[in-house]
Amino acid sequence: MDKLLNTNIKTVSRLLLDGAVKTKDLTELALNRVSEIHKLNAFITLTQNEAQIQCGQSQERYKTQKPLSELDGVPIAIKDNFCTENIKTTCASKMLENFTPTYNATVYQRLLDAGAVLVGKTNLDQFAMGSGTIDSIFGPTKNVWGYSEGDNFRISGGSSGGSAVAVATGACYAALGSDTGGSTRNPASYCGVVGLKPTYGLVSRSGLIPLVNSMDVPGILARTVDDTVSVLNVLAGFDPKDSTSLTKPYKKIRLPPAGKMSIKGLKVGIPIEYNCEQLSEEVCDVWNEIAILLKNEGAIVKQVSMPNTEYSIVCYSILNQCEVASNMARYDGIEYGFRADEHYSTEKLYATTRRLGFNDVVKNRILTGNYFLLSRNYTKYFEQALKVRRLILNDFDNVWDDVTILLTPTTLTDAPLYRDFVSKTNRDQCAAQDFCTQPANMAGVPAVSIPIKLSKNGLPLGLQLIGKNLSEPLLLAVAKYIENIVKFPHFSYKM
Amino acid sequence: MLSLMYNHITRKLSALPSHSWQSVIGLEVHAQINSKSKLFSGADTSFSSPVNDNVSLFDCSIPGTLPVLNKKCVESGVLTALALNCRINPVSCFDRKHYFYADLPAGYQITQQRFPLAVDGKLDFQVFSHGTNKLPNAVQVRIKQLQLEQDSGKSLHDSDRSLVDLNRAGAPLMELVFEPDLTNGDEAAAMLKELVAILSRIDTCSCKMEEGALRVDANISIRRENEPLGTRTEIKNIGSIRGVAGAIEYEIKRQVAVREAGGEVVNETRSWDSVARRTVPMRDKEVQQDYRYMPEPNLPPLHVAMGPIQTGSVNADELQRLIPELPEETRHRLRVEKGLNLEQSIILVNDDSLLKIFQRIVGCGQVENKKLLANFLINDFITLLNKIEKDTCEVEESAEYLGEIVELLEKGHINRTTAKFLLEEILSENNKHSPMEIVRKKDLIQITDEKELTAFCEKVILENEKVVQAYKSGKTKVFKALLGSVAKLSKNKADMAKCTVILKRLLDE
């Protein structure tokens, strides 16, 4: 029965429809798994009550053979920066520790409308500012790969580390992450799951507590490409509540069986600038290996140049801090969230509330961002960063003249040890972790990280595919093609 | 209501104390857009709702909520820009303006700083003071830009606590920035009246200043001739047109006094104390704020379709066709078609209800002499309304009776005194009769018969020997007193024009 949690959505959906499995049992199985992995600290809030109600309703639908979608009755998890009605949404921060929204994020609402069952809200870095899921007031999320007691564990990656661990361990079939600079793909890579960052605007941001509005996208974590597609088909499409969501009608993606696909003639680019100094030999080897594999399968693989890549990370960091400074201005303790016990003056109330409510990483970014936005600095930093952002976008536009898809590393190494990782500053952590992932956010293009093989340490290594805007059907097809060949050894749960 | 204000303003103003000083005035007007819902949310905008009732999740900046631009507000903005001869930007953008304040929930206001909806407009208007001998003069003011932005909420301060009402937070505003082309409070008041007339015509703003639907900031500086602009002060949030004129005149005098005493004008924000009738420095604006403007990332650029470009959230060419006759055109039409003079056209256009009454009477075709009609409305009618403290908009329904009175007057059936009496009668609370009925019932038909009038005059001459003596010895002033006696004798029914001629003739015999 436990194996059920490791199968894919299509299989479980069929079992539910056949009546071989009851949603109630499936949910119970998932909730048990959730409590079994308690020590990994993947969840902030468990939603047993909601799950019971939702699976009960799903059961009724299956009785009449009328499921809402193939996600009906399927356990899922959501990163705790998506608003969920009547369920705490903390952003892993003291500021929102007791914040309970009165509305649903569009993505959660669409999952509900598809019949999915929520098992819990997952851990993240405070307000998604980080790439390790270590800066949470609820403590770090531990990677299930290479796990050991004490602080000798591997980080899960981040900031959607909780979601990645939940999916990897079978606590749910899929989970929502958010992706601003790699926050979905990075933990996917470290935890050996698939992580999709869709095209900016394809999936609504309404209800996603923002980090960088112009780069944020809801991301999907799942164990297989097919599962990722199932979830994307439910989430994608215009939302009138998000003015940046694309109005073009979304056509559901249907991928053929891997055996029936061919990549003959597919032009695959290897951007040389992604071969940066800190890239580990092991990751570089996997990259080469897959490039050769694709070539052997008939693809045209060639080196391409994206000369502005090296400026991307610093430019990303400036834009990130500016938007953070602005987005965080609302947390003043007046309307909602944490309020300090301070009565001297309104200004003092703001200051104390914000001093106590935010961690150092958040405060740092607010201060730096505000500095960049001062009228005397605006041109020098913010405007300059926008110009560089345009150059990075141009790099992508140009490269599509030559190739259809890019193959790059997702992360520079396998999952670092927690104690090594925390010895670096947040800025250095992000600069290394986001190097290969944030250019796609700068340009808005879709990217997916897929697990390839295990490192010498027995840890997952992933690679990233990047396509042009709205090329998800092709991007995911190629991902599925590779997935089928490499046959990544998924984590099988025995703790 | 507006024509009521006229008198007050002009009387309280006085000329600049020193001829060597020039004053330079620039206005910024915040006009709340007439719209059922807010600029970026579906929350209601009605004025009298209970505290914190008109608040959507977005308006109180709940995390994860996003702005969605209200198309109706864009249309109103474009209509206003067109009516003010602005150039519409085919692409405009929204920006965040950051500052901390309890009634600004997001910590920033969404406005249009870099690329506003429209720029480079102009507004022509007449500066004219009813009741003075000054002739109207034409003034033009340029409009720098028109931008859409959110309003903030309201803080209510108690002795030991502060409360916040977010009903107004996110309400749609048009900010109109005028170039400093004005020179005094009179001009500012006249310009605002013209603006109110235009916005009312196109119905983009209620212009109810008492509800804060129109708020005015005035920038004021003085300089000697040929000098560069002096340091300016800003008077924030003036709540009435009369207040704007008063505040500007006060501030000019204050600055002149400072400079003449050898002092320097300080760049500061002041407020207008309408009771004490003076400007006072505002305390909370001591530090120069850096608003750290940033493009609003949640709103794509706003496109307006016009000419060959057919894609946009609204179409400027279609909106242009919806613009009704504007005040300046109405004034022109009143002069050319109805034969009114400039002053009459200005006064009628400044009072929408009065203009409606005028047009209704004209429409009925009762009155031939439009000038007489305008005169009667502007003088007799308004004077009476002032006396009984009523607004023209309250008495629009009496247009028909008003027309009848003017018709009687025009045809010589009654005299002016009777007309005034009838006016009082029809406006009294429990009147049930038409002017004609009152005339019949009370026998008020004008006496025009030469013989009858001559008899009245002769009788007065006989009974007032001393006065007649005085007149004959050169004190012609007393003629009026004699004429008054004639009127009285006729129970105010005599044709006074005729009586004047007859009495004069008899006296000079």
UniProtKB/TrEMBL annotation, chain A:
InterPro entries: Amidase, Amidase_dom, AS_sf, GatA
Coiled-coil region(s): none
Keyword Mitochondrion: yes
Protein's UniProt name: Glutamyl-tRNA(Gln) amidotransferase subunit A, mitochondrial
Catalytic residue list: K79 (charge relay system), S159 (charge relay system), S183 (acyl-ester intermediate)
Keyword terms: ATP-binding, Ligase, Mitochondrion, Nucleotide-binding, Protein biosynthesis
Location within or outside the cell: Mitochondrion
Documented EC number(s): 6.3.5.7
A single GO BP: glutaminyl-tRNAGln biosynthesis via transamidation
GO cellular-component term (any): glutamyl-tRNA(Gln) amidotransferase complex
One Pfam family cited in the UniProt record for this chain: Amidase
NCBIfam families the UniProt entry points to: gatA (TIGR00132)
Presence of keyword Magnesium: no
Principal EC category: ligase
Reaction(s) catalysed by this chain's protein: L-glutamyl-tRNA(Gln) + L-glutamine + ATP + H2O = L-glutaminyl-tRNA(Gln) + L-glutamate + ADP + phosphate + H(+)
HAMAP family, A to Z: GatA (MF_00120)
Function: Allows the formation of correctly charged Gln-tRNA(Gln) through the transamidation of misacylated Glu-tRNA(Gln) in the mitochondria. The reaction takes place in the presence of glutamine and ATP through an activated gamma-phospho-Glu-tRNA(Gln).
Family classification: Belongs to the amidase family. GatA subfamily.
GO molecular function, one term: glutaminyl-tRNA synthase (glutamine-hydrolyzing) activity
Organism expressing this protein natively: Phaedon cochleariae (Mustard beetle)
Domain Amidase residues, every copy: 25-476
Source organism superkingdom: Eukaryota
Subunit structure, as described in the record: Subunit of the heterotrimeric GatCAB amidotransferase (AdT) complex, composed of A, B and C subunits.
Automatic annotation (TrEMBL), chain B:
Regions that span the bilayer: none
Molecular function per GO: ATP binding; glutaminyl-tRNA synthase (glutamine-hydrolyzing) activity
Location in or out of the cell: Mitochondrion
Entry EC no(s): 6.3.5.-
Catalytic activity: L-glutamyl-tRNA(Gln) + L-glutamine + ATP + H2O = L-glutaminyl-tRNA(Gln) + L-glutamate + ADP + phosphate + H(+); L-aspartyl-tRNA(Asn) + L-glutamine + ATP + H2O = L-asparaginyl-tRNA(Asn) + L-glutamate + ADP + phosphate + 2 H(+)
Keyword terms of this UniProt record: ATP-binding, Ligase, Mitochondrion, Nucleotide-binding, Protein biosynthesis
Domain Asn/Gln amidotransferase: 356-507
Assembly, per entry: Subunit of the heterotrimeric GatCAB amidotransferase (AdT) complex, composed of A, B and C subunits.
Record-given protein name: Glutamyl-tRNA(Gln) amidotransferase subunit B, mitochondrial
Organism encoding this protein: Phaedon cochleariae (Mustard beetle)
